[in-house]
Amino acid sequence: MSSSYNSRPGVAEVMVKGDKFEVVRKRGTVEDLIKGERVASFL
């Protein structure tokens, strides 16, 4: 479980079964972290 508390993108998640593996969640980006954020209009 990842968190953006320290402004770090989430890590990729990989599912493994025996000798098979697949990325099930891509690594997060900085853009993902700031998406939906805005600076207050009075600053």
Summarize the structure.
Helix content is 12%, strand content 26%.
How would you explain this protein's 3D organization?
This protein is α+β, with helices and mostly antiparallel strands and 43 residues long. The chain has one domain. The chain is built from 1 helix and 2 strands. It has one helix spanning 30-34; strands at residues 13-17, 20-25. The chain has a two-stranded antiparallel ribbon with strand order 1-2. A hairpin with a 2-residue loop joins strand 1 (13-17) and strand 2 (20-25). The protein is rod-shaped and about 55 Å long.
Average pLDDT, rounded to a whole number, is: 88
Shape: rod-shaped
Strands ordered across the widest β-sheet:
1-2
Q: How many DSSP H or I helices?
A: 1
Instruction: Give the terminus-to-terminus CA distance.
Output: 34 Å
- What pattern of helices and strands is seen along the backbone? EEH
How many separate domains?
1
Supply the helix-strand structural class.
alpha+beta
Main sheet overview: 2 strands, antiparallel
Annotation, overall tally of beta strands: 2
Q: What's the gyration radius in Å?
A: 15 Å
- Strand coverage percent: 25-35%
User: Helix content range of the residues, please?
Assistant: 10-25%
Low-confidence stretches: none
